[in-house]
Amino acid sequence: MATSRNHRPATRASRGIPEATVARLPLYLRALTALSERSVPTVSSEELAAAAGVNSAKLRKDFSYLGSYGTRGVGYDVEYLVYQISRELGLTQDWPVVIVGIGNLGAALANYGGFASRGFRVASLIDADSALTGRTVAGIPVEHSDELEKIIAENGVSIGVIATPAGAAQQVCDRLVAAGVTSILNFAPTVLSVPEGVDVRKVDLSIELQILAFHEQRKAGEEAPLEETAPPAAPPAAAVTKRPDSGPDGDVPAVMPA
Amino acid sequence: MATSRNHRPATRASRGIPEATVARLPLYLRALTALSERSVPTVSSEELAAAAGVNSAKLRKDFSYLGSYGTRGVGYDVEYLVYQISRELGLTQDWPVVIVGIGNLGAALANYGGFASRGFRVASLIDADSALTGRTVAGIPVEHSDELEKIIAENGVSIGVIATPAGAAQQVCDRLVAAGVTSILNFAPTVLSVPEGVDVRKVDLSIELQILAFHEQRKAGEEAPLEETAPPAAPPAAAVTKRPDSGPDGDVPAVMPA
DNA sequence: CCATGTGAAAGCGTTCACAGCC
DNA sequence: GGCTGTGAACGCTTTCACATGG
């Protein structure tokens, strides 16, 4: 999801296609591309759903927002669907992007083959460190961040990827937006604030791990008692009501009653 | 979201805490940690919500699932909340993780400071390329994938990160699971299939960009007519009904009426 | 008074189950 | 007969608005 208070009015997804569906279209597209490469002519919703890791009812519902592109009793024409979904996602256009921050992550992104094959063209790699300037990563020269505005203007870039350290992210974001970028993919662990009309999506490496840890804890906590590490910090003051179900124990020792 | 047909029964979130709330706890935790470092003693739901990029009603509702940890008329005690959320997420425990696939992305993950500071300890970096074996990345030695099972057993690893090319991902996943890993964070662009009881979360770099492109296209399409690149592929055969609203035009030229 | 905590209402997303069409 | 397309039911999530309590 987008990070800031802007984004679209939240209600009513773009062009009538629900946001949840949009988020799955790339998944379907990948599965379809694989089928296409194996020259499979048609798929049923059941098969395609399995390949994409969703259930078939959801897939059919998703496709129904795009139009009636299947054939009853038969399934979907693979090539045709590939085209329709690509078009819907805007991948039949060319999207020049810039990647700002060429550390390991920026380099990984530059090397990632999944971009080029989907209409994304890395117009430039940008870093503030002049030691990197002039080098090439994945065949693309790294340019200095002084050139940022120029690069964006000359290439008509509207999508920017931020892979800088957290401290630099907002500043980079501001410059990108001022230069005309209206969509930002943010890998820095910060909440970016952007003006109305600019979309921000966030990918946070550690958040995903934390969510896994939560579930992992539950699995373990169900049988093994397993003690916590440090004793708790100081609670605030008064009523610490803690919910009815006090889980697998491990609650704080209820300290300092005002 | 998790990728495979397994995961929990979907309905009824873990321990009564809704999944959507769990996904936001790391966000709150980060904002709270920042406040804590600035020695701020208390926050209101309004302030904290702004820092985390959500609205205050949502935040209060989220916290209400954890317990009544605030003080009416005052707000929340920062230190106390940090502890409560950490505990809820299981971050007061030590979580050894392995990262498999030490390319640019794996290296970026190994270098990512956000892990260590949140209870995650990279027990080992694993790669199939013996040329890497023995080197260290972020101070952690890279070990050969032959050792995978041994490493997992010896370190009690239950969380694995897959940063290999797509082709190797399922195989690596199978070995991780067989060795006892029950939570997997997958960066490879593949749908992993895992047995019941194993959680998979996916981070897909190109999917995020594609979602941005979708919205970007809409912004542009609203005013500029803007022509598409290639003419469409062959449609299937019969009824191509296309929905009532035919968007900003740009539909396929309605070909080949059987 | 002020900000939390929470029922109740509204909005989305998913699933069901079957009508419709090939 | 088989598979798509879709209304209707259901459940989860968000938002509202206010009672509650420091």
UniProtKB/TrEMBL annotation, chains A, B:
Residues holding NAD(+): 101-106
Keyword tags: Cytoplasm, DNA-binding, NAD, Repressor, Transcription, Transcription regulation
Biased composition (Low complexity): 227-239
InterPro entries the UniProt entry points to: CoA-bd (IPR003781), NAD(P)-bd_dom_sf (IPR036291), Rex_actinobacterial-type (IPR058236), Rex_DNA-bd_C_dom (IPR009718), Tscrpt_rep_Rex (IPR022876), WH-like_DNA-bd_sf (IPR036388), WH_DNA-bd_sf (IPR036390)
DNA-binding region ranges: 27-66
Domain (CoA-binding) ranges: 90-191
Compartments in which it is found: Cytoplasm
Region annotation (Disordered) ranges: 220-258
Top-level division of the source organism's lineage: Bacteria
Family to which the UniProt record says this protein belongs: Belongs to the transcriptional regulatory Rex family.
Classification via PANTHER family: REDOX-SENSING TRANSCRIPTIONAL REPRESSOR REX, REDOX-SENSING TRANSCRIPTIONAL REPRESSOR REX 1
Function: Modulates transcription in response to changes in cellular NADH/NAD(+) redox state.
Subunit structure: Homodimer.
Record's protein name: Redox-sensing transcriptional repressor Rex
Organism, as annotated: Streptomyces hazeniae
